[in-house]
Specification:
Helices cover about 40% and strands about 25% of the residues. A hairpin with a 4-residue loop joins strand 2 and strand 3. It has a 5-stranded mixed beta sheet with strand order 7-6-5-8-9. It has a 4-stranded antiparallel beta sheet with strand order 3-2-1-4. Strands 10-16-11-15 form a 4-stranded mixed beta sheet, with helices on both faces. It starts with a helix and ends with a strand. The chain is an alpha+beta fold. The chain has 3 domains: about 110 residues, Translation, Eukaryotic Peptide Chain Release Factor Subunit 1, Chain A; about 130 residues, Nucleotidyltransferase, domain 5 (2-Layer Sandwich), CATH 3.30.420; about 90 residues, 60s Ribosomal Protein L30, Chain: A (2-Layer Sandwich), CATH 3.30.1330.
């Protein structure tokens, strides 16, 4: 499953040519039998397009990487989408827990717009299943939950009251303090996963242990909701119906907040809605929040003066297959945020709006 760290790595790479192949895939048979055929056809399309612009000698390292990457695809374990990113010195594939449009993009950078959109649309979040037996951490992307099992999690409580007996003179206050200390340790360990993001967190467990965790955690502001019960033996699939209503509510609130922020910024004169202006100001670091329709794609070139010029069709290394992708990456790279809305929601803003810091 792709992570924020993966996304940053992809966005940091600049190389010519940078080949991105994206396609929707299927989780189950017999639908997934068509996936290898689609991949083969897209690889052929990519190879033909590359051959028109580069010599065989120039392409050889990239094609070797591409062949190796394709051979690594495990079609029995695909999810809802597949993304392949290949250059002369880089090759990486991702199984995506969200669908992506079928596309072949040849550019100076990898096309991450659909991944950014997919991660935002599906909503990423964390689920903590709190228990002294084994506190579990699950990463959520939309309706897909994946348990973290890397040596740090699941995390078991050790010592008195867990792996050893309680002292003879211990009371309930002592036991409660032991639990608080354990969840404090859980919280510190989670810091390595949280990085600098503010993803929603859903807490699961008995009410008493949820309360202890919230007393000691520095991430309480990110807690979006709780589910109560004993989840020691719960499977990720069984948890989805429990957490999904909370995730949907979070996403709905984020979209409402974005539209409210847009209205407020309009009143203050801090919004641009032409793609050319959004391109320039995003690259200058002035974009605080980019609000864009999910189906908005625009090919463009950079003019001799550094501005953006929209063109009719893709083709050639000078043409960006999607300028919107570049704007999204620029906003994120400068510390801004991105929210995607349904097509038609920004008809009054030419389908894209950038809220400015100043």
């Amino acid at each position: 499953m792709i992570t924020r760290h993966d996304l940053k790595e992809l966005q940091s790479l600049t190389t010519v040519p940078a080949l991105s192949i994206l396609l929707p895939t299927h989780r189950t048979s017999p639908d997934n039998r068509q996936d290898p055929i689609v991949v083969k056809n897209l690889v052929s399309e990519a190879t033909e397009r590359l051959a028109k612009e580069f010599s065989d000698r120039d392409l050889d390292p990239l094609l070797v990487n591409l062949d190796g990457l394709v051979s690594d695809i495990n079609y029995a374990h695909t999810l809802d989408g597949l993304a392949l990113f290949v250059s002369h010195e880089f090759a990486r594939l991702f199984y995506l827990p969200f669908t992506v449009p079928q596309r072949v993009i040849i550019d100076q950078t990898f096309a991450t717009r659909d991944l950014v959109y997919g991660l935002h649309r599906a909503q990423r979040y964390w689920v903590f299943l709190l228990s002294q037996n084994a506190t579990r951490l699950l990463a959520g992307t939309g309706e897909t939950l994946e348990e973290v099992t890397d040596g740090s999690f699941p995390m078991e409580m050790t010592g008195p009251g867990a792996t050893t007996a309680l002292p003879y003179d211990s009371d309930s206050a002592y036991v409660d303090d032991r639990h608080r200390r354990f969840f404090q340790q859980v919280d510190r360990t989670f810091t390595a996963y949280a990085e600098d993001n503010t993803l929603p967190i859903i807490l699961g467990g008995v009410i008493r242990q949820i309360s202890f965790f919230q007393e000691v955690s520095k991430y309480t502001a990110q807690v979006a909701g709780t589910i109560t019960g004993n989840f020691d033996a719960a499977t990720p699939a069984a948890l989805v119906p429990e957490v999904w209503p909370i995730v949907q509510a979070v996403r709905s609130q984020q979209r409402a907040d974005a539209l409210q922020a847009l209205d407020t910024a309009m009143g203050a004169g801090k919004v641009v809605s032409a793609i050319e202006a959004a391109w320039r100001l995003a690259r200058d670091g002035r974009g605080s929040l980019l609000v864009v329709e999910k189906g908005y794609h625009v090919p463009a070139v950079v003019s001799p003066t550094g501005g953006l010029e929209v063109v009719e069709a893709v083709g050639g290394t000078d043409v960006m297959d999607d300028a919107v992708d570049e704007i999204i990456e620029a906003v994120l790279a400068k510390g801004g945020e991105v929210v995607f809305l349904e097509d038609g929601a920004l008809a009054d803003y030419q389908r894209i709006a950038l809220i400015l810091r100043y």
